[in-house]
Amino acid sequence: MCGIVGYTGNLQAASIILDGLSKLEYRGYDSAGIAVLNEKGHTEVVKAKGRLQNLIDKTDSGKAIKGTCGIGHTRWATHGEPSQINAHPHVSSNSSDISSDNNSEVIGVHNGIIENYLEIKEKLANSGYQFYSQTDTEILIKLIDYYYNKYDHNPLSAISHSMIRVKGSYAIEVMFSDYPEEIYVARKDSPIIIGLKDDDSF
Ligand code: GLU
Q1: Cβ(136) to ligand 1 under 6 A?
Q2: Ligand 1: which atom is nearest the Cα of residue 78?
Q3: pLDDT tens, 103-126?
Q4: DSSP-assigned beta bridge partners for residue 29
Q5: What is the DSSP string of 85-152?
């Protein structure tokens, strides 16, 4: 098991997400990560192997990451060893630039398993994609990026076409740097709860 948390609204996202992830710690995990998108469409990704506390320390309890829209994840590895590079969020660029700002277009976290990821990976490689991790999740994010570029940078088209292609179970949260205040979610056989309060969405 593991967990995903997202927040978009008026408040600073990182500390809310870290707090949410700490409430899901009981589910078990081997690494954790967070991505926050600021209003300029600039994404910051920070990941850490091991305890969530490592991520909390690395980000000064979230205060070091500014922005009001973000996603976070605690990972229970199924594809690829527990490591910082395999930790989520995953990005559509060709390297996981995890120590500094990242201009990736598509950023996401995922609970579950993409069963046909090897077949999809091969097709994406033929279209010029490169991969930095061993995870099925990176393949999913790159598949969404592929359809995002194919279908006029429309997030819903990109995600729905991807969901038709993938086999398996999942709960995902995806951000697009062209849509700085939005988080897209999809699920199959895994739960997601969406909470709304005034201008805040959880
Ligand atoms: N299959 C994904 C991975 O190994 C997600 C695992 C999870 O649900 O945390 O990264």
Answers
A1: yes
A2: 4
A3: 568 999 999 999 999 999 999 999
A4: none
A5: TTSSPEESSSS---SSEE--SEEEEEEEEETTHHHHHHHHHHTT---SSS-HHHHHHHHHHHHHHHTT
Instruction: Choose one of 4, 136, 166 to mutate for the ligand 1 pocket test, by most ligand atoms within 8 angstroms of C-beta.
Output: 136
Q: How confident is the model at residue 2 (pLDDT cuts 50, 70, 90)?
A: confident
Q: Is 133 in the pocket of ligand 1 (CB under 6 A)?
A: no
Compute the distance between CA of residue 13 and CA of residue 34 in angstroms, rounded to an integer: 10
The model's pLDDT over 127-168, given as tens digits with 9 standing for 90+, comes to 999 999 999 999 999 999 999 999 999 999 999 999 999 999
Tokens in use for 43?
Answer: 């994404």
Following CA atoms 183, 8, 76, 185 in sequence, which dihedral angle do they give, to the nearest 10 degrees?
Answer: -30
